Amino acid sequence: MELYITLAVMAFMIINFLWQKFPMGLTTMACCTLLAIFKVLTPSEAFQGFTNNSIILVAPMMALSVAITKTSIVPRIRAMVDDLGSKTGMALVFFFFLVTIAFVQFIPATATFSILVVFLTTLSNSGEVTASRLLMPMLGISCAWKGYIPIGMGATSFATINARYETIINNPDYLLKMMDKFKVAAIPVIALTLWCLFAWRLLPKEGNVSAKGMKEVKETKVLPPAQEKLVFIVFAAVMAVLVLNKWTGSLMYIAPAAGIIILIYGGALTVPEVTKALTADMIFLMAGVLGVAAAMSKSGAGDLIGNAILSILGGHPSSLFVMFLFTIVTIVMTTIMSNSATANILYTVAATVCLAGNWDPRGIMLIIAIGNVISLGFPSGAAETALIYAAGNYSLKDVWKFTVPYILIAIVTIAFSANLFFPIYG
Predict the structure, then answer these.
(1) CA 354 – CA 414 distance, rounded (Å)
(2) Of 95, 151, 284, 380, which is most buried by a Cβ count within 10 Å?
(3) Crossing angle of helices 396-421/319-336, nearest 10°?
(4) How many Å apart are CA 134 and CA 148, to the nearest integer?
């Protein structure tokens, strides 16, 4: 009976992720509640995700990122964007690409483009580099670089990924380390960046880029010098603890929490700001997924799903074939539906398949994490993608010469790189 209840709850979760009517965190909390009500899990087992090391690391890190946005870094970059008069040609392309890379390390891509589109509208259509030619490649740069550099939220991406599958596959040797995503994503990031640097000319030169309808991004008051210095010191210290986790050990998981406590007492963060970050939907989503994963493991539902998919793949498929299969599925799904929905469905399914096949899951998990943000093919892929298509007044026929090769390059490089570093047979 537990098996059927778990499968029903899993189906409920997937349907709600696809439907997107309610916040995903609410969906996973409902799943955990149902699993506890029907006694598939005890209450403490159902909600054990909130005490998971990865959650303890990621939640305060989100609050720490809020503190960074209150420093003078973002206004300085905005001022640089405003000073475009003397820049032309490739210098302009490089400049906007670098600004995009910098922004997406600390603030959401949607907010990034809400800022940058306004400045792009001031560019003339008379030169080779026009707003219409820059906007879509900037989205391509964002897709490639978002969460890549291990600073800010990128520093905890490995823990976020681990949290999605460590309850199903509890072998510590198969958990990701801080730099694993960085090295696997290096080849795709380089290849996609080079494509963006040269392929912007494939886009229509003249267009009607508009900032109408863009959400206004509120100016954040910059902290006083003393508090700003405190933020930089705390941020640097936390990053050092994360990077040196081989020696700092479990201190890595509590360093961000210690950092935000210092910032609250130092006046750089307020309690409401921290509370808002700690109660973000993402935190409830991650914690809830862990509860569902625990039920799948305990009830045998995970084995059932994993063995069923494994039987379709065959007894001993090649590692590269499996990598290509998961890369294609991930990118196709994230092209037509949201990043979050794609990831939350595939992480659990992939983990059960890896467990059934006794495979090393790290390469496949990184494929999902990296491929999940390659969402520029259709406006429905992500909020920032919809924003770009709307602001650029793009039709699919306007951009396919850029987007289709971009997606193909992503599929080939992500699958190859994941198989190079983490083949499924070890």
Answers:
(1) 18
(2) 284
(3) 150
(4) 21
Terminal-residue alpha carbon distance, the chain: 36
Tell me, yes or no, whether 257 and 317 share the same domain.
no
Report pLDDT digits (tens) over 192-239.
999 999 998 898 877 666 555 454 445 567 889 999 999 999 988 988
| Low-confidence winner among 37-41, 284-288, 370-374 (lowest mean pLDDT) | 284-288
Q: What pLDDT does residue 268 have? A: 93
**Measured between alpha carbons, how far is 149 from 243 in angstroms, rounded to an integer?**
12
How many Cα neighbours within 13 Å face the side chain of 248? 15
Residue 143 within any structural domain of the chain? yes
Euclidean distance between CA atoms 359 and 322, whole angstroms: 11
Q: How far apart are CA 54 and CA 161, in angstroms?
A: 9
Let me know if residue 426 belongs to a domain. no
pTM of the model: 0.74
In this structure, is residue 147 part of a structural domain? yes
DSSP code of residue 374: -
Question: For the ranges 12-21, 56-65, 292-301, 302-311, which has the lowest average pLDDT?
Answer: 302-311
The pLDDT of residue 137 is above 90: yes
SS3 content of the chain, % helix, strand, coil (to 5): 75, 0, 25
Handedness of CA 259, 75, 110, 413 (dihedral sign): negative
Single out the residue of 68, 60, 66 nearest to residue 235, CA to CA.
68
In a domain, 198, yes or no: yes
| Exposure on the CB side of residue 206, measured as CA atoms within 13 A | 2
Residue 182: count of CB within 10 angstroms of its CB: 17
Q: Do 241 and 348 lie in a common domain?
A: no
Dihedral angle, C-alpha 97, 99, 105, 108, nearest 10 °: -90
For residue 106, the enclosing domain spans 2-54+67-220+281-421
User: Residue holding tokens 């040196």?
Assistant: 244
